[in-house]
Amino acid sequence: MRRFISVAIVSLAVVLGGCANRAADPQAIADETTRGVYDFDFNRTTAHFDDALKAEVTRSSVGELSNSLQALGTYHGLKQIAADPEKGRYDYQASFDKGTLLVRIRLDPDQKLAAYRLVPEGTPGRS
Description:
Elements: H1 2-19, H2 26-38, H3 42-46, H4 51-56, H5 59-70, E1 75-84, E2 89-96, E3 99-107, E4 113-120
Antiparallel strand pairs: 1-2, 2-3, 3-4
């Protein structure tokens, strides 16, 4: 009987552990979103947006951003340059053939993007 209870407790712990909220990878979210913009893929661009941010974005605005990114050449990925996990804020440098720009994101408590900004290098301010 003790063995059965022990096995049941271990099984329950495994099941509950599998259901636990895993922390999002902010860089992966920022990269996937940036690749969505670059490829002019509206659904991939907005896949991680919270409802408020989704309401601000249009296919036209994604198209304009996509054109701007395409003008920089091939997208090579992100490098983290700042992080404030307690506030959910992360800054990345996006590399392209012809230059770089800042990608600034803010994650809400549900690990959704509450802010996503593409900022030309050297521009002050925070998302």
